[in-house]
Amino acid sequence: RAKQLGKNNVQLFSNALSGKPTDHYELEADMRKALINNEFEVYYQPRVCTNTGKILSAEALIRWNHPELGFLPPIEFIPLAEENGLISEIGDWVAKTVCIQLKAWQGEQLQVVPISINISAQGFLRNDVISRFQSLLDETNIDPHLLEIEITESSYMFNMEKVVQDLAELRKMGIKVALDDFGTGFSSLTQLKELKIDTLKIDRSFIKHIAEKKQDEVITSGIIELAHGLDIQVVAEGVETKEQLTLLRAKNCDQIQGYLFSKPIREAEFRSLLEKGFIQH
Ligand code: C2E
Ligand code: MG
Ligand code: MG
Ligand code: MG
């Protein structure tokens, strides 16, 4: 089935992208049905140790197998879900799916790694964000250390105080916190100090030209040093070339996430990577 889907991807994908703009109302109604009909799927992209290629973690990334439009990447529906509020339900579904998956892997005696999930600003600014995570942990009975949430700057821009409090609470519960897409927007170094995070993910846009643009290289070095000074682990996003990897190794970047090691993959494929524990490239 994966192969078949893979073959169809290109065609369906271009239909979705270049066909007439999909009616938002229709897509919204479809989205509600999608939750009931199990059309969403979680893909996993490994995060590996920069020096050894050992799989240390993975990011959960949602996809939608739409019955007519085919395979939809998050960019085609997450912004709409953020507008219409469905993002909360979708976020809950992703978090629960990941927990159930972790439990299943553990049941099969696999050496599991922590999984990070993306939380949209709306999802994070809800009043009940803490109690929702608490009930998820109670319900699924997984070790909170196996969960990491990824937030972006848009989550704390408007209500820094609440976010600082909630993050502290989540970390007390044992859930880890990553700051995603770091370096884009207005994220500042002062905020790093206040937010008390475990992981910092350097945005792909810096990594992309790290081998050619001196400025990007210098900025990346600075971010890594600063993070390490604050006891924060650093992940480079979007690493695609050996050259980028070599540079990031020299700079002591802790973890790599990118196509060089693996694209986001379906659960079955990720499971076989977990069995090996390492990715060679
Ligand atoms: P993100 O959280 O920054 O996720 C990383 C994105 O970079 C993923 O795109 C991933 O496929 C892509 N990527 C990773 N390595 C490479 C690389 O080497 N080269 C290139 N060109 N791209 C790479 P994806 O899966 O399309 O997701 C896009 C965004 O959608 C995510 O960015 C995240 O903001 C959002 N998203 C995905 N899943 C969820 C979810 O479950 N909930 C929420 N709220 N947002 C999600
Ligand atoms: Mg992310
Ligand atoms: Mg990111
Ligand atoms: Mg992003």
TrEMBL record:
Q: What range does the record give for the signal peptide?
A: none
Give every EAL domain span.
Answer: 24-278
Q: What is this protein called?
A: EAL domain-containing protein
Q: Which organism is it from?
A: Halalkalibacter alkaliphilus
